[in-house]
Amino acid sequence: MNWPHAMPLLLLSLLIIWSLYRRVRRTIAPARLVPRRLYLRAALFLAVEALSTVSFAMHVWDDVSAAIGLCAGIGLAVFAYRTTRYEHRPDGWYYRTNAAVGVVLITLFIARLVWRTAFVYEEVASATAHPGTPSTASDPLTAAILFVLFTYYAVYFLLLAAKARTLTAEQDSARGPRGSGST
């Protein structure tokens, strides 16, 4: 093995493992409900999804896969939202995502990452051995999985942001009017 050439791949692998660890930890631990942050995250996922729609719009099967992923992502987000637990702490509201949904999403992402990496590695090796062979840049499975993930996070964050506003409004109304003199 040629270590100088393998070092970037090793560093990239370590970075991916570290980011997956952080994602798993974040999925399990309670997170603070901050509407602005949730709206920003949803907007970012929607923007990435819009850009992905443009790049996948070249083949019919990619469009069908993206539509299936979109529907599955919405369904998964609604299910996750309905099973999310909320808790009030002195510094604000927190939510805990359904652990099963988190595990499914992480597993889906990791499995697809491993599969796609192996596929690209094989494609590069084949292209080196047989120059001029056509590349299969379009992949319906990748389109479906990406749209499941992007749609899930965008819809889930929008639902959480709406819930955060509801929870803070309920809490404010339960306190009563400010300055009423009640102690």
UniProtKB/TrEMBL annotation:
Keyword Protein biosynthesis part of the UniProt annotation: no
Protein name: DUF1453 domain-containing protein
Key words, A-Z: Membrane, Transmembrane, Transmembrane helix
InterPro entries per UniProt: DUF1453
Annotated transmembrane regions: 6-24, 38-58, 64-81, 93-115, 141-162
Keyword Acyltransferase: no
